[in-house]
Input
Amino acid sequence: MSVEKSVFGTTPEGKEVELYTIKNKNGMIAEIMTYGAILKSLFVPDKKGRVQDVVLGYDKLWMYFKNGSFFGATVGPIANRTKGGTYKVNGKKVQLPINDHKANNLHSDINNGFHKRLWTAEAGKNSVKLSLEKKHGDLGHPGNMKVSVTYTLTDKNELKIEYHATSDRDTVINLTNHSYFNFQGPASASIHDHILTLYASKYTEVDAQAIPTGNLPEVKGTPMDFTKPKKIGKEIDNKDFKQLKLVKGYDHNFCVDGYNGKKKLIAEVSDPKTGRSMKVFSDLPGVQFYAGNCIGKNKGKSNFPNGPRKGFCLETQYYPDAINHENFVQPVFGPDKEYNTTTIYQFDW
Output
């Protein structure tokens, strides 16, 4: 195992952005940058031994300064949507920026969220730990926070992401990684032929602004059913199913079956063409399956174009807008409760 450090570029303020490259004995390579704690690249062999980058993104640092699709980003303090951009903790109202549908909050802050900040890094034997501090009131959130995200690449072909955060006041914390996967590489037309299994028999129903209604319908008998392996594209354009029409395809939180706070297998994805497959393990109650319906059309890696459905996300998380729904597991952390969670993406080919 090895970790190499290099300079990827500089921020508009003139600060260096470091890039950490981690390699395992099987040919996998992960590249993580200190800007946004972003997973820039993840190289994985296929069934013929050809190594290819399986996450969407950009070749140049300056393109991440906009990054409207959040490619590879560590999103926080609150990932996903918050209705009205507001929530209450201990009876006190918190107001977040309104940046989605002119009514709600998405991913905390588009321009100043954790994905647009410079983290400090510390390399290990086969890992890199990125750290960040947030002051009380920053982005509207209460609490002086200390946050770390540790990426580890193992010889079991696991990309392990460990999150840790503390706050001196009760606050909402719901971090995630926003990588978009395509096991056929950046030249692929879409992810429709990838085969997905989600160990989730319910999902969070959404309204026209993609905000959870509070209802948790069963997936059985609907296009939302991935409890058995199914091609992502098989029912994605079903025009008779309202939930898909509202968000132009799959962009829903799925409720992990048997959630108990312990790490378990929550999803599997495979691509018959390349032989690449991935298992997802998490200790969180939900996972956002986003089929990349609204990826912006721009120049991606190796000059191949990014665009709708060129990549899919499996973002482990507490349910979106959980703080505003008493029937959802609550993501409130503070002096008496630290935030600790682990996600593992394990590959095979």
Observations:
- The domain at 2-348 is CATH 2.70.98.10 (Beta-galactosidase; Chain A, domain 5).
- The CA atoms of residues 184 and 247 lie 25 Å apart.
